[in-house]
Design a protein that fits this description.
Blueprint lengths: L1 E2 L10 H14 L5 E4 L7 H8 L4 E4 L11 H18 L3 H6 L2 H12 L5 E5 L9 H5 L4 E5 L4 H11 L5 H21 L2 E4 L2 H8 L7 E3 L20 E5 L5 H21 L4 E5 L5 H6 L5 E5 L4 H6 L3 E4 L9 H8 L4 E3 L19 E2 L3 H13 L1 H18 L2 H13 L1
Parallel strand pairs: 1-2, 2-3, 4-5, 5-6, 6-7, 8-9, 8-11, 9-10, 11-12, 12-13
Helix pairs in contact: 1-16, 7-8, 10-14
């Protein structure tokens, strides 16, 4: 399993959670070697803990960030990266994280015959898998996409949420070629929602694509025993990811002022690791608290009245949505946050309230603040599909089938 993102602890973000839990399932049935790139500040105890979940943990350092150059030197450096990205049809973030040492290690492992299958945990890792691995050495290759970078970037541009729209537009054709290439090269592709599958089939209609949703560890996210009431809102997620930053900025700047006019006691807790300076600054707004990494995410969920997930961008089923539902916290979320879930279909009990505009958020949150019966109804309804459809045991079994089938 190749994961440039260090997947421990399994609570930092969606990529870490999905990778670790699928790894955990596979380890019970197969010999698993995990190849990864920890951050500089990854605690040694996290490395040792992860080592206990695999047969072999192989680590390579992330490339050092290039020192900032001024004037013409900076322009030339950026121009060189752009030309290399275009020439190789490889996104710049993939090139930046690429490790020649990791590549050499993987080449030796495959040639030695000590590898039956390779999984790339996120599409950024597909750069390491050469066509001859399958053609010459009969090694099966699977890419666990998590979410399409090409379609995600298109969505960012459409929503006006891109940090650098000119750059992203320039790289859009490169992202398209990169994803089209791996859709043609890999034996199987795994995505989290039917929408993701349909998007990638546009790149290669013959691709073998399995839809395997995310899951929840029900032991870590038990259904809460009591509704705390009150006016406590929570958002959970790794707070260095652009889609999470965009979501909380939208909510704090646009929704909270209108909401606090009606409910002055309303508070909004932004709970998650690695908050950027931009996120920390949001804590200066009335009623907003930025916690950073916390010892127990579920404890914060259990004492919250409502979980608000105002995601504006990003594709795929969201761990944060499933975990809140598992914990018995009613959810108000956007279309993006509720993707892949039967939320408000006719004839089925509602499992969340949908909102996409300021007015819709204020109305939906107000309904739940004032109606404890509705809060409990949504919480109980949402727990049912979590238990039957969205567990890591179910996801792991299907992932194993995609790899060995």
């Amino acid at each position: 399993m190749i994961s440039s993102t260090f997947p421990y602890p399994p609570s930092l973000g969606g990529t870490e959670i999905r990778t670790f839990n699928l790894l955990k399932y596979l380890r019970d049935r197969h010999s698993v070697t995990l190849v990864t790139q920890p951050y500089k500040d990854t605690p040694e105890e996290d490395i040792e803990a992860l080592r206990g979940w695999v047969d072999e943990l192989v680590m390579f350092p992330l490339p050092e960030d290039e020192p900032k150059k001024g004037g013409m030197g900076n322009v030339l450096a950026k121009g060189g990266r752009f030309l290399k990205s275009i020439a190789t049809a490889t996104p710049p973030n993939v090139l930046h994280r690429y490790s020649p040492q990791l590549q050499a290690w993987l080449d030796d492992r495959v040639k030695s015959g000590n590898c039956d299958a390779i999984t790339c945990e996120h599409s950024v890792n597909t750069i390491y898998v050469r066509p001859e691995y399958g053609e010459k050495y009969r090694v099966k290759s699977v890419v666990n996409v998590h979410s399409s970078v090409y379609w995600g970037t298109r969505n960012f541009l459409k929503m006006g949420a891109s940090e650098n729209s000119l750059r992203d537009r320039l790289y859009l054709s490169t992202l398209y070629r990169y994803e089209k290439n791996y859709c043609q090269q890999f034996d199987r592709i795994v995505v989290t929602t039917p929408d993701d599958r349909d998007q990638l089939l546009q790149l290669n209609p013959q691709a073998n694509i399995d839809v395997i949703p995310n899951g929840v560890d029900l032991d870590l996210f038990p259904f809460r025993t009591a509704d705390p009431g009150g006016y406590q809102l929570i958002f959970v997620g790794a707070m260095h990811y652009t889609h999470n930053i965009d979501a909380v900025r939208f909510f704090v700047i646009n929704v909270m002022p209108a909401l606090r006019e009606r409910y002055p006691e309303a508070t909004f807790n932004i709970v998650g690791s690695r908050p950027t300076e931009e996120v920390v600054e949001l804590g200066k707004h009335p009623g907003v608290v930025v916690t950073g990494r916390v010892p127990s995410m579920v404890e914060y969920l259990h004492r919250s009245t409502i979980c608000v997930l105002p995601l504006q961008t990003g594709f795929g089923i969201k761990n944060k949505t499933l975990e809140a539902m598992a914990a018995g916290v009613p959810v108000v979320g956007s279309d993006r946050a509720l993707e892949g879930l039967s939320v408000d279909e006719p004839g089925k009990p509602p499992i969340a309230l949908r909102a996409n505009t300021v007015e819709e958020y204020v109305e939906a949150i107000g309904r739940l603040f004032e109606d404890s019966t509705l809060r409990m109804e949504l919480a109980k309804n949402a727990r049912v599909p979590i238990e039957s459809e969205f567990t890591w045991e179910r996801a792991g079994a299907r992932y194993e089938g995609a790899i060995v089938g």
